[in-house]
Specification:
By secondary structure, the chain is mainly alpha-helical. The protein has one domain (8-429): MFS general substrate transporter like domains (Growth Hormone, Chain: A, Up-down Bundle). 81% of the residues lie in helices and 0% in strands. The chain is built from 20 helices and no strands.
């Protein structure tokens, strides 16, 4: 990519360190998610199918329910202490939770206490993940200029996808080759430590440093209009649009991995090992979709990429219940999963666009809280509501969740597209006035 070759040495080093850290963080975070079909049987009591589904949903959602609290904590750290501090602290927290997970006894050994300890670890992982990917993306948004900013920030999402893919690989190795699952969590703990040490080499973003200096120089009561870009108010429509765009990926992820995983188990008799192995292909396609979006963003505005996804996904979702009702083999379901993740409703590579519409010294707090809230609401709602919707309506119950999310995602994209057009027009007028 020619855009990336124009970056300075320090910028390329920062990109590499943040990508490595995000990869390690998401490997740790997703390790349990992808091994849940196996680990839930070890740490939670066995019961009837309906109760088991609720317990599984609870275990999955525990990672996301308290994320908004983590967002408030890391948002404050990111906007008051610095972007660098958050991405170091999050990897340390992830490492500690992995060490506990690697040593906790099973349900057969200590009873329900095992379930509570595992749930606590998942909550810690969910909290730490809040400062991770958003912190890395904001760091690069504030240090890289457009148009290189779009693919560079998009590569952070790709690093997260690689971490998830590697977690699936370890999960597959654990279940198919007798690899001890505790060893997998020890690996996660070790690489998290490596990531936190590596990130100490990062420098704080100049945009954040300049904003802090600006406030110290002017004081809070002077030249308030000048400091609007640093600590100003945020338009409520901007918050809503950001939330709606962020709500797209949880639906894509839950359907492809969790919902389809249950179909493989219940309809086709897949074992946990087979489900994990199947999901390796899905994760590979997820990464391929991300990389394609990053490549296209080098030549096309990111909002156009998101709009194209809406036009592709909506007809697919309208046909989805009919497709699922006519499944004849696991391979046909795999094709559905691959399509879903190739065109997943992610904000990648457009996140760098809406970050810039939040004031610098409120940017971390707002964006990380919106990210956390979108995951907490969407994963929790989807996990529990779909149990009852599909019991009553079968696969047609998917419509009542996915279709509203698609329309909300589309509205958010159009909103930021208008902001970008207005902003570019204003910048062009300013340049013409200067030239005159």
């Amino acid at each position: 990519m020619k855009l990336l070759s124009s970056l300075s040495r320090n910028q390329r080093e920062s990109i590499g360190l943040l990508q490595i850290g995000t990869f390690l963080e998401y490997f740790d975070l997703m390790l349990y998610v992808h091994m849940a079909v196996l680990l839930n049987e070890l740490f939670f009591p066995k019961t009837d199918r309906h109760i088991a589904a609720l317990i599984s949903a609870f275990a999955f959602c525990s990672t996301y329910l308290l994320r908004p609290l983590g967002a408030i904590l890391f948002g404050w750290i990111g906007d008051n202490i610095g972007r660098k501090a958050t991405v170091i602290l999050t990897t340390i927290m992830m490492s500690v939770s992995c060490v506990i997970m690697a040593n906790v006894p099973t349900y057969a050994q200590i009873g329900i206490s095992a379930a509570w300890v595992v749930t606590f670890c998942r909550i810690i992982q969910g909290l730490s993940s809040m400062g991770e990917i958003i912190g890395a993306e904001i760091y690069l948004t504030e240090t890289i200029e457009t148009p290189a900013r779009y693919p560079v920030v998009g590569l952070i999402g790709c690093a997260a996808a690689v971490g998830s893919l590697f977690a699936l690989f370890i999960a597959s190795l654990t279940t198919s080759s007798g690899f001890n699952w505790r060893t997998a969590f020890w690996i996660g703990a070790c690489i998290a430590v490596v990531g936190s040490i590596a990130r100490t080499r990062l420098r704080e973003t100049s945009e954040f440093i300049n904003a802090k200096k600006h406030l110290k120089t002017l004081g809070r009561n002077k030249h308030e209009s000048v400091t609007e870009n640093y600590k100003g108010n945020v338009n409520i429509k901007t918050i809503i649009a950001c939330f709606l765009i962020q709500s797209g990926f949880p639906i894509s992820f839950f359907f492809a991995y969790i919902y389809c995983g249950d179909i493989l188990k219940n309809q086709f008799g897949y074992s946990p090992e087979q489900v994990i192995h199947n999901n390796l292909s899905v994760a590979a396609m997820e990464l391929a979709g991300f990389l394609i979006c990053v490549f296209i963003s080098c030549k096309t505005h990111p909002m156009k990429i998101l709009k194209a996804k809406v036009y592709i996904v909506l007809p697919f979702v309208l046909l989805l219940p009919f497709i699922l009702n006519s499944l004849s083999s696991p391979k046909s379901l795999l094709l559905v999963q691959l399509f879903c993740m190739l065109f997943s409703l992610t904000d990648l590579p457009a996140s760098a666009i809406y970050y810039k519409y939040f004031p610098i010294l409120k940017r971390f707090t707002y964006t990380v809280f919106i990210f956390a809230l979108s995951r907490a609401i969407m994963y929790t709602t989807t996990s529990f509501l779909l149990i009852y919707l599909t019991n009553q309506l079968g696969h047609f119950g998917l419509w009542f969740i996915i279709i509203p999310v698609i329309f909300g995602f589309s509205w958010g994209v159009r909103y930021f597209e208008k902001l970008e057009f207005s902003n570019n027009t204003s910048n062009l007028k300013a340049k013409l006035e200067q030239a005159a």
